[in-house]
Every structure is written in C-alpha cells, then in structure tokens.
Design a protein that fits this description.
28 strands; alpha+beta; single chain; about 375 residues; twelve-stranded antiparallel sheet; six-stranded mixed sheet
Length: about 375
Amino acid sequence: MKLLTQLFLLLLPLSAISQEFTVLTDATSLRMLPDGKEIVGTLSEGYSQPIFAKFGFWAKGERGWVNLDFTDYSQPLFIKTGRIALKIFRIADGVNADSDSGTIYLPAGSVIVVAGEEGDFVVGTFKGEGVKVSKDSGVLEKRVFDIVVLTSPVTLTSDYGSLNLKPGTPLLFDGNSVMYNGNFWIFERTNDEQNFFNEEKVISALNRLIDIYNSAKFSSPIAERLGYYVKTMPLSDEDVSLIDTNSGKGIIIRLKHKFFMNNGKPITGRKTRLILKKSNFDFWLKLAKSCFDNGVNKFVEIEIYRFNPAINGYEKEGFVSMSYHLYKSGKYNSYDNFLKYSDSDLSDDLWFFADEVYERIENGD
C-alpha cells in the first residue's frame, strides 16, 4: 500500500528554461571562470546574452562568465520542469484514516494523492504515507499541475500556518496555489537583502567624502609644488542615477573634475590631467562603500568627467565599476586586487604620477 509521492517527479524530462542577462554598466568583463582574474572578453551596456549556467552571483554566457551584479537578469520565483495530471482527494471535514502505521487523523483541507479506488474507499498517499479513507469524507478531483523547482526562498501560507522553503525545493503548482506536504498553500517570495535607499542621504554622504578628499588634495605637497589642484565637484541630483531591478539596486555616480590654481582661480586655458592615480582609486572605493552601506546591493559605477576649456564643458574620460558581492567578500581589499576585480576603462590621457611631476619640476619643465 505504500506509495512514494515523489516518484512522479522522475516521469517527465526537464525542459529547457529560457533565461538571459542584460548589461547595466558602461561595460563589464567576461571571465574564464566564476570569480576568476583572467578576462576573456567585454560586453557593453545593453548587450544581452542567454544564461547557460549559474554559480552563485556568476552566470555563464556565450563566451565566458559574467558577474550578475552588473546585469539585469530574469530571476523567476520558480522554474517549471514539467506537467502532470493527478487525481487528488480533498478532505472536507476531519476524518480518521487507515494508514501503513495505523489509524491517523486527517484534518479538513488535507490532500491525498490518489492511487486508486476500492469500492467506497479512496487509496493513496498523504505526506508520503499510504492511506485509505471513505469517499464520503471529501471530494475527488482531477487536476493538472506544473512541476516547479524554487529558485528563491519562499514562505508558504495557509489556514494551518506557514512554512519556509529553500531554493531547490520541488512543488506542484496549479496556477493559483501550491500542493505540498499534504495541503494547498499560497506562496510569497522572501527577500533577505537590504531594501532601503534614501537618495538624499546617499548624496549627502558622498559629498562629505568629496569635501574631505578636496581638502586633502588642496593641502598636499604636490599641489603646493605645482601651484594648482584638481577639484572634484559636489554632486547634484542629476549626477546620481539609481538603477532599480528585480534583483537589487545599482547606482551610477558622475564625478566631475575641474582644475584650480592654489589661489582659487579656475584654470581655463588648457586641459589638465589628474594626479596620483592610486589615491583616486582609494577615494572611489570609499564612495562605493558609502553606497553599499546605504542600500545599494548590486553595483556602484563611477563615471569620470574632466573639464575641457576648449568646449567649455565636461568630457567623459571613462568609468570604474564595483560589485556588491565582490566588495562584501573582500576582493577590493588591496590596490592590486581592486585593479584585477573591478571593471574599468579609463583614458590614458587622464593621469600622470607624482614622481613624474617632481622630475619635471626639478628639470625645469
């Protein structure tokens, strides 16, 4: 009389599931392996590819692995793996039933997967155990279910309480409710990620960091020797864009740089370059940390703009993007690792280094 309720899951082959990602940042790297350092290609903003495999927050595209933090991607609550027609018996009122282990009580709403009928009785399984009940204790139905596997944590709710289920749990779904563990349930997605974001608070925090950084640059020995310094302009609402997706929040920060003489007079006659590349990376990481601490849970992209007197405006000189998951796992904890794991494309004309500057000064250039 024993029946295994999970046997039917083996009767139907898995069907192919269509899923793809779309790049949200200026560009992102394709890597040989998940979390790998070797870059095998680059995908530009807006480019879409099918997902062939997933590993954590990485997805395998057509030519390599991409960090999903930098993408928008379909993440259904569950994946359909097949369909099955079943006879079920729903208990109308509580009833005692014969089972493999003796007499058990089935409360109202309990669902038996029917294996057959024996005269005035229904024979089937309830929570994996063979049972036999009178036909007049409930309603016999035929239903077609989708066989689905959860991709996200969910909470099942019913009149009898709630259950928390993990990704990978198989369920039967009829389009409205789930049949699981001998009952029908309604499910809802649970989300453990931070769900808060206050744009005004974030911009204020970033501008405090910018003020500190500008003060340090203005008072640095290199600025004193050169007679000028580069100022990072305060952020306004138009310089910050929140990218809100089903899988989390990303942010784009447009940093604008303008050059001033030490006496405060702006430099308008020539295009100048940023100084001390490493200090800029350290500063950008502080900006990213502030965003990640305030509700951003996908990526921070910093776009670099430099004032060009020839056009009396700002020109984009590149970008650098940082992943929330790589940040949380400590992958940006050193300058070398920052360069290996962040995505960036910065103009070579943007930089010169302090030692080169001192050498030029000493040579009278």
